[in-house]
């Protein structure tokens, strides 16, 4: 009996201990909740950087500097957060930075900054520290269109982009701000009744907010009232709604613009006349005149946007290289282009630079990087022509398609001359398989957004001649005249790989071959625009087409 009694007492003791432990755990849990609600665990030891309501401190490459009320951020961090194309220009020993509609230059010894060609006095300049370049971000708010707030008490530096929406609300009671919507999450800040907070998002019962101390966390949505939008998001409207349908209207530098008064071109929304070119000294020349002014008036009266070409064909490889290799020369050309756009009230520019040095590839990209914000600032569209990704050094490898496609409003893929005038082997001007393969490289290898790609198609083909000695030559024939040069008894065959008709016949001792560009072949190529959600179509050139092509283009682009 005594043994049984001892066992019972031991069981009671164990149970009592368990109850005591459970009680202690509950008490500690309650104390923890109380402490967690009142003690702020997120005290910053170093300055935290919050950009557009995201704490990016862990991504900083270098420390933030504070000197004489000027805030400095390193060049590497500016590149990471604002301008990945920022660079140091050796010619002028200045930092060149571009952002949206601004291009700015800032030096190391003068308290000034030049924004879009206009110099402005500021209170600081770029500095070097331990081999690192720092920029006075607090003096560059106009460049990056930002608002900066330095909260010394909590060691938080806030940078907000002024083109983004911002909402505010009032807190209805004293409350703890949590690191997440989980009740057990740590307290990052405490706010009092009546305080304003920035509302970032609302998720079910909780809202993500930013406090006046710059801390980001969560509170119950029921604790917010009087929510208002203090700043609307600024969305950039595209000049062309829907797909671009551009046609190049080419005329030589000694000819006048075509007289198109009283005519319309079905379905198009952009014309690109050959108004501008670089001469052999690298100067921007124009071929507008009275006829050109009438052309612009005709286009605008019909609702067409005017994006004239700027060609470097006369300047050639060496002169173009001289311009690209000098920041001052690039800026002079950009200034001249901007002035012409303003003078003639045009809507866009089509940069058609070809035959350039491979080693100037990055400098040509710099030209587009520096040109685009200047044009965007005055509402002008930038489109840039490029060739297929595979090809010769001066015709293909001279383009960085990824950068051009990233920076410009549109990159125009001139999808023709798969076999061109210099080819020693007969072949198609633009086979469907080659066009599709090239487009896939634009999209996948170059990683260009599809809606920024304009597919340019040819309104011409070539008649290839192989003589009895095996020598190959070719002659360009326009789309509208192709069938008139083909003998009636010639056998036309459809090539399903190239998606075009092929004709072969003899003319005396010569063998003739034509890969025909007609309504059927062009329709196949244009179908890729819908399939791959491209930005639109361009056609080279007006006057070479057969009339039915315009209706086809309109129908295909409206699919």
Q: Any descriptors?
A:
single chain; 559 residues; Copper Amine Oxidase, Chain A, domain 1; SH3 type barrels; TIM Barrel; 11-stranded mixed beta sheet; 27% helix; elongated
Could you characterize the architecture of this molecule?
The structure is a single chain. With 559 residues, this protein is α/β, with parallel strands linked by helices. Among the domains are: 48-148, 2-Layer Sandwich (Copper Amine Oxidase, Chain A, domain 1); 165-231, Roll (SH3 type barrels), CATH 2.30.30; 244-414, Glycosidases (TIM Barrel, Alpha-Beta Barrel). Helices cover 27% and strands 32% of the residues. The chain has eleven helices and 36 strands. The strands form seven sheets. It has an eleven-stranded mixed sheet, with helices on one face. Strand 33 (492-495) and strand 34 (500-507) form a beta hairpin. It is elongated and about 120 Å long. The N and C termini lie far apart (96 Å). The mean pLDDT is 94.
């Amino acid at each position: 009996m005594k043994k049984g009694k001892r066992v019972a007492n031991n069981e009671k003791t164990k149970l009592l201990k368990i109850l005591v432990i459970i009680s202690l755990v509950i008490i500690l849990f309650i104390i923890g909740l109380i402490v967690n609600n009142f003690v702020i665990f997120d005290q910053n030891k170093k300055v935290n950087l919050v950009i557009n309501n995201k704490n990016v401190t862990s991504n900083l490459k270098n420390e933030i500097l504070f000197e004489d009320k000027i805030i400095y951020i390193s060049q590497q961090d500016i590149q990471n957060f604002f301008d990945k194309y920022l660079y140091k220009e050796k010619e002028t020993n200045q930092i060149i930075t571009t952002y949206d509609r601004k291009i700015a230059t800032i030096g190391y010894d003068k308290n000034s900054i030049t924004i879009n060609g206009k110099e402005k006095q500021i209170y600081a300049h770029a500095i070097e520290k331990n081999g690192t370049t720092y920029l006075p971000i607090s003096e560059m708010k106009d460049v990056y269109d930002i608002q900066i707030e330095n909260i010394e008490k909590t060691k938080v530096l806030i940078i907000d982009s002024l083109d983004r929406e911002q909402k505010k609300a009032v807190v209805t009671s004293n409350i703890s701000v949590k690191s997440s919507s989980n009740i057990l999450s740590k307290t990052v800040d405490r706010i009092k009744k009546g305080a304003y907070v920035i509302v970032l998002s609302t998720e079910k019962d909780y809202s993500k907010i930013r406090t006046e101390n710059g801390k980001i966390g969560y509170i119950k949505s029921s604790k917010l009232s009087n929510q208002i939008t203090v700043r609307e998001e600024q969305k950039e409207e595209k000049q062309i709604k829907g797909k671009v349908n551009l046609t190049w209207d080419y005329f030589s530098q000694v000819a006048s613009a075509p007289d198109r008064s009283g005519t319309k071109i079905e379905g198009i929304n952009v014309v690109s006349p050959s108004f501008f070119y670089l001469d052999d000294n690298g100067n921007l020349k124009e071929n507008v005149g009275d006829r050109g002014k009438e052309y612009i008036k005709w286009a605008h009266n019909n609702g067409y946007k005017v994006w004239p070409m700027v060609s470097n064909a006369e300047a050639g490889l060496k002169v173009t290289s001289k311009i690209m290799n000098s920041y001052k020369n690039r800026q002079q050309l950009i200034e001249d282009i901007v002035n012409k756009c303003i003078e003639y009230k045009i809507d866009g520019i089509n940069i058609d630079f070809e035959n350039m040095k491979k080693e100037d590839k990055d400098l040509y990209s710099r030209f587009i990087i520096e040109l685009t914000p200047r044009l965007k600032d005055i509402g002008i569209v930038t489109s840039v022509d490029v060739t297929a990704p595979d090809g010769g050094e001066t015709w293909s490898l001279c383009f960085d398609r990824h950068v051009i496609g990233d920076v410009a409003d549109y990159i125009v893929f001139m999808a023709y001359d798969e076999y061109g005038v210099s080819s020693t082997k007969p072949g198609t001007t633009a086979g469907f398989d080659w066009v599709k393969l090239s487009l896939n490289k634009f999209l996948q290898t170059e990683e260009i957004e599809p809606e920024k790609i304009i597919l340019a198609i040819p309104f011409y083909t070539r008649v290839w001649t192989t003589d009895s000695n095996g020598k190959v030559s070719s002659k360009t024939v326009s789309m509208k005249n192709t069938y008139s040069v083909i003998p009636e008894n010639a056998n036309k065959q459809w090539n399903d790989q190239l998606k075009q008709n092929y004709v072969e016949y003899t003319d005396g001792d010569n063998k003739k071959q034509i890969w025909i560009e007609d309504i059927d072949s062009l329709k196949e190529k244009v179908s890729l625009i819908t399939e791959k959600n491209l930005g639109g179509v361009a056609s080279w050139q007006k006057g070479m087409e057969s009339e039915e092509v315009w209706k086809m283009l309109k129908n295909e682009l409206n699919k």
